[in-house]
Amino acid sequence: MDTKVTDPDVILAGRRDELDTLDAQLLDVLRRRIECCVSIAVLKREHDIPMMQPGRVGVVHQRAEAFGREHGISTDFLRNLYEVIITETCRVEDLIIDETGVSNDAEPSR
Fold first, then answer.
1. What is the DSSP code (8-state) at residue 51?
2. 3-51 pLDDT, tens per residue?
3. 69 near 61, Cβ under 8 Å?
4. In the chain, at which end, N or C, are there fewer CB atoms within 10 A of the end residue's CB?
5. How many Cα atoms sit within 13 Å of 22 on the Cβ side?
6. Domain ranges of the chain
7. How far separated are the first and last CA of the chain, in Å rounded?
8. How many C-alpha atoms does 78 have within 13 Å on its Cβ side?
9. What tens digit of pLDDT does each residue of 52-68 get?
């Protein structure tokens, strides 16, 4: 008697569980990254440092591209991903540096 499993949900369940765990970790790292940017924005405000640091943005992009090349991940994908991440963190930093406060949807949990 053939007991081969054919239900895609059963076949993929273990891998999907792993993916859900990885997604939770990824989201937590993004939250922690934004929290770090919040603390950087406070320092920028306290020391009158401009929010935008173009040299630093370049370093972040170069590091991501090198990682992509080393691990076989599209460098275009990583550049686009970091553009989204950097755009959001700049938005949050602007709010803090301008002392307008961070809206609830951007405020990191403590």
1. S
2. 888 999 999 999 999 999 999 999 999 999 999 999 999 999 999 999 9
3. no
4. N
5. 6
6. 8-97
7. 56
8. 16
9. 888 999 999 999 999 99
